[in-house]
Amino acid sequence: MSRENDQGAGKPGRNIPGQRSALILLMLAYACSLADRMIVGIVAPQLKVAFSLSDAQLGMLGGLAFAVFYATLGLPIAVLADRYRRKTIILISLFVFSLMTALCGFAGGFASLLALRMMVGVGEAGVNPASQSVIADYFSQERRPFAMSILAMGANVGMIAGFLIGGITSQLYGWRVAFFVMGLPGMLLVVAAIFLLREPSRGQSDGVIAGAVKASASYFSSVKYLLKTPSLMHLFMGCMITGMLGYGNAQWLPTFFVRSYGLEMSTVGLILAGMFGILGAAGTLLGGYIVQRADARRAGLGLKIVGLSQVVMIPVTLVAYLAPELWQSLCAFAPVIVISGLYLGPTFSEIQTRSPIAMRAKMAALLMLTVNLIGYGLGPLAVGVISDLLTVSSGNNGLRQAMAIMSFFSIWSGYHYWRSSAPSRRPDSEDPQTEMSHARA
């Protein structure tokens, strides 16, 4: 792998050539990764019958098996992303996880499917940290929250594609074809990105002279910087807990609607794509807009709003999961979906802004480690285990009760987002490689 040949530095706040195409391509790459993650939840009822799986095993397939490799391999890949061309890393990662998703359609049982889901995690490990680093170099601090929210909107686009295409395909042609179909878009996107994605100069949106940043910061120094920066620690904790709730419940939503309201998978796909995809995308974009405007008025105000949003949605979330009628559940879900999307873009943005330039990909990988190993890894598994326990006494209501119980963790995440709003020092003061590298705008 050759070292990067970056474009020249731009001035903060100005449009940089290639930023729009990069943002769209990376958002679509994120969408492909989310669609490939969600497909297990979509076909879970069929997998349960085909391989006689327990809810805990389904939670393992949808969570821990994927997350262990996705989170841990992100660390060494981020070292490469801070040193070499991020475009190359993104292309290879996108191709690998798309291919592995398609190969899941050939699985002959739980063990082979588990191994393939692990390989999906291996492929996806390289996309997120490198993408966040690229976007941070394309958009200035003032414009970064909304740009990161557009990147994060890929999760909702992926959810729409996963639930709609995956739900209908699995209903009509079975779970094997659903895996084949979900792996194809990522391979096509690789071809488009080869020609359209451009590698930016590190730190160019912050006015750093091209080539001035030397990515020599180790993971030890990155972890040390994280531990001694309270605002970053609170951001990590808030995102980790929110991720545990979001990934845990999202993985089980298709099964929730099937068990609780007797819907077919094609109907579930339409509901989840329409409501959870579109409203979720609106909430994600709204989060970036609100935080960007709020921080322009007073520093830290945006994250306080994010923290409050975590707590405000709990009562409505309980109604959504426990409502006796489908229409009541969907009406309650509508505001919950919008509010739950507020946090992601601002979190990505603030972590990149508060991290030294030479640590940005590694800091994003550390976030990925905590959010996915604990959040994505334990969230679906926790819901599955609690559901198994409650199903003994509550039958099909065990799953909805388990998901309702998990929603109370939002109080914890809200506390950390509120605390993360405290001002922090300029990261470059702790980064010897970039301390003297800022050009005057």
Please describe the structure with a list of short key phrases separated by commas or semicolons:
single chain; 441 residues; mainly alpha; Growth Hormone, Chain: A; 20 helices; globular; disordered C terminus
Can you walk me through this structure?
It is a single chain. The protein has 441 residues and is mainly alpha-helical. 75% of the residues lie in helices and 0% in strands. α5 (86-103) packs antiparallel against α10 and α12 (230-261) runs antiparallel to α20. The longest helix has 35 residues, at 360-394.
Helix and strand topology:
Elements: H1 19-42, H2 44-51, H3 55-72, H4 74-81, H5 86-103, H6 110-124, H7 127-138, H8 144-152, H9 154-173, H10 175-196, H11 219-227, H12 230-261, H13 265-297, H14 301-312, H15 314-322, H16 326-340, H17 344-353, H18 360-394, H19 397-406, H20 410-419
Helix pairs in contact: 1-3, 1-5, 1-7, 1-8, 1-9, 1-10, 1-12, 3-6, 3-18, 4-18, 5-6, 5-7, 5-10, 7-8, 7-18, 8-13, 8-17, 9-10, 9-13, 12-13, 12-17, 12-18, 12-19, 12-20, 13-14, 13-16, 14-20, 15-16, 15-19, 18-19
Whole-number tally of structural domains:
1
CATH homologous superfamily?
Answer: MFS general substrate transporter like domains
CATH level 1 class label: Mainly Alpha
Assign the CATH architecture.
Up-down Bundle
Through-space gap between termini: 33 Å
| N to C succession of SSEs | HHHHHHHHHHHHHHHHHHHH
Shape: globular
Low-confidence stretches: 2-13, 429-441
CATH fold descriptor: Growth Hormone, Chain: A
- Main beta-sheet strand count, sense and barrel state: none
Radius of gyration equals: 21 Å
Number of distinct helices: 20
Please give the number of β-strands. 0
Average pLDDT reading: 83
The percentage of residues in β strands lies in under 5%
Helix content: over 70%
Structural class based on helices, strands and sheet pairing: mainly alpha
